[in-house]
Amino acid sequence: MDDFCHQIYSQVHQIPVGKISTYGDIAKFAGFPGYARQVGRLLSNLPQDSRLPWHRVINSQGKISLVDDGKARQMEALRNEGILISEQGKINLKHYRWD
Hints:
The protein is mainly α. The chain has a single domain (about 5-95), classed as Orthogonal Bundle (Arc Repressor Mutant, subunit A), CATH 1.10.10. It has 5 helices and 2 strands, in the order αβααβαα. The protein has helices spanning about 5-15, 25-30, 35-45, 70-80, 95, and strands spanning about 20, 55-60. Helix 2 packs across helix 3 (about 35-45). The longest helix has 13 residues, at about 70-80. InterPro entries: ATL_DNA_repair (IPR052520), MethylDNA_cys_MeTrfase_DNA-bd (IPR014048), MethylDNA_cys_MeTrfase_DNAb (IPR036217), WH-like_DNA-bd_sf (IPR036388). Pfam families: DNA_binding_1. This is Methylated-DNA-[protein]-cysteine S-methyltransferase DNA binding domain-containing protein.
């Protein structure tokens, strides 16, 4: 595993239950500012049974970027942690953002 992957996974692993972060935040915290898209790509390639809390990472608009089954899975996982989400997949960043 290269340094980028290791740093991203490390940051995502630290997001506490009941909090969310953005792809850009994770990139910045890992020392790779401006690499939000790469974070998204990396997380989208995780195996289905990954224990990494990938579901706690959303886009900078406070929305879930996934569609269809992925969106439903992410919404369910977040709601199970007590995070309020609109039917459109929008989350209040001011309230739930981890930094």
